[in-house]
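Deliverable D5.2: sample structural annotation.
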Amino acid sequence: MALPEIDFSRVEQLINLAFDEDLSDLGDATSLGVIPSETEANAVFIAKDDLICCGLPVTEMAFKMLDQNIRFNALVNEGDFCPKGTILAKFKGNAQALLTGERTALNFIQRLCGIATTSSRYAKAVKGTKTLILDTRKTTPGWRNLEKYAVACGGAANHRIGLYDMVMIKDNHRELAGLEGEKGITRSVQRSKENFPQLAVEVEADTLDEVKEAVQAGAEVIMLDNMTNEEMTEAVKIVDGKAKIEASGGITIERIPSIAALGGIDYISVGALTHSVKAADISMDIKPE
């Protein structure tokens, strides 16, 4: 699975914001006050736990925004499994710049590796089936491109990127549009296709009756929201290959294999890939050159 591209123009903005809140107008008072300006140093990133690597290009960018002369050498690839003790990258350059960028660089790579590692665990839970694990829009504001990149590094897949690249009709949309109730899904799908014919339409279905209506309305994707495995089995029969099926809501990693084993579930979306991950444990060791 090809990795999505990193939007480095957006990453630059994020790094600038991070440095701005860390340095303000004075700068790194400790490094500037203690370390001679001409001191050079060697540094490494070391994995302190087993992890999936993700985010090295971002850390390289962060350091080089402080000093273009820093030499950065990644020793593993994005998406690689790295057991505890793996040296992820070696880099050398001005010691003040390396120390100034340390925490910002680690904040990026630790979170991205955490997402990639969690995504890998979920992706393994459907291994051997035709079901894909999808992320959601439950991402850190401003970080979506990076966090969805990290999901892909871990072997899971990306759902829609934003509100602009797919129509997803939920009960709140139907109610506020005055289309709740009988044939509300049908009219919602029709309106969506008229206004945005270039976009796929997904419908959230809470009941099997709503699944039936979504199929008849011509939705390309039907989300089974908080359904039991038994209800999903019936939904698969109703859809009968006429649309893609996404399971969502109440999804735990323990439950995923049983859902994938039902057959006919194309996607399982999991907000936990991005909204509640634990940052990976990575340290930066530095020594004078």
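Annotation notes: The chain is about 40% helix and 20% strand. The chain has two domains: 8-123+277-288, 157-269.
The annotation will be released with the project's public dataset once the embargo ends.
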